[in-house]
Amino acid sequence: MTVLKDSWYLPHEKEILELSKTIESLKKQGGPLAKDVNRLEERLETLKTKVYSELTPWDRVLISRHPNRPHARDYIREMTSSFFELHGDRTFGDDRSMIGGIALIDEVPVMILGQEKGSTTEERVACNFGMLSPEGFRKALRLMRLAEKMKISVISLLDTPGAYPGLEAEQRGQGWVIAENLQKMFSIATPIIVIIIGEGCSGGALGMGVGDSIAILEHAYYSVISPEGCASILWKDAGKKQEAASSLRLNAEHMLALGIVDEVLKEPLGGAHYDPSGMCKSVKEHILKKIVSLREKPLHQLLDARYQRFRSITSVGAVPLA
Asked: Residue ranges per domain, the chain?
């Protein structure tokens, strides 16, 4: 398991951090304390198992937002043997929060798209913290249409707190372009594999999320609104975000039970940020498996099933608040 800096531990990991510090201190002292170290290391593993088996919905939202969690660019770098990035929407500009291009995954050509939050402060600002502008959604649709022409599968990695809500985005047709993507993705005649790798919020996620196979990482979440936004609307108090997270039923197991996703991809103990390479390997294996199975279906059946699955989501019914 990767060792994190103190500032990167989450609130539910406080006891783990304190015990880890004690172990490191004893190791530095050496000598007759070795027996204590072994005993405490066993205790640490037991504590980790207990803490990570009792996570609340809000704890898991925090995991999905962890700054060290692998982002779209990390998955692309780890999973592909080559990646040729494509830029621009041919209308306004290039949105750095949406990266995409032609790639090879084990010599299988794909069009891979990803919502990118950035890793450093400079990158996060440049990527607008993963909030896509209209040009980002238009670029995504342009690359999907290119994949259709090339007869290669589309891989869409979702990780966004929502579409950018600023005035300039609305002036450039934010609502319109998300609606257009929803409509057009139903007719893209090539397999589309969607994976929610972190936050999957609102139209920002759905605008790139119509596909034939939808998977979600164990600690990712998929929701019509963020817990903070929900709390602000329902209770006029964003501080009730933990209650909102529980009421929204936004965790992976809820999405699977409701039939909104097909599969939940297991994460390393504590979250994907503890073993990014292992998580990327797991996602890669899932993608290759799905490419094979989806390619076996005739295109007309693929498109009809894609349409019907999203029509069925609307009939799932409202989930009552706790």
From this structure: 18-54, 67-313
For the question of whether the overall pTM of this predicted structure is more than 0.90, the answer is yes
Mention the CATH class of domain 67-313. alpha beta
Q: What is the per-residue pLDDT across 6-63, written as a single tens digit (0 to 9) for each? A: 568 899 999 999 998 888 888 877 666 667 788 898 899 999 999 999 999 999 999 9
HSE at residue 163, side-chain half, CA atoms within 13 A, is 29
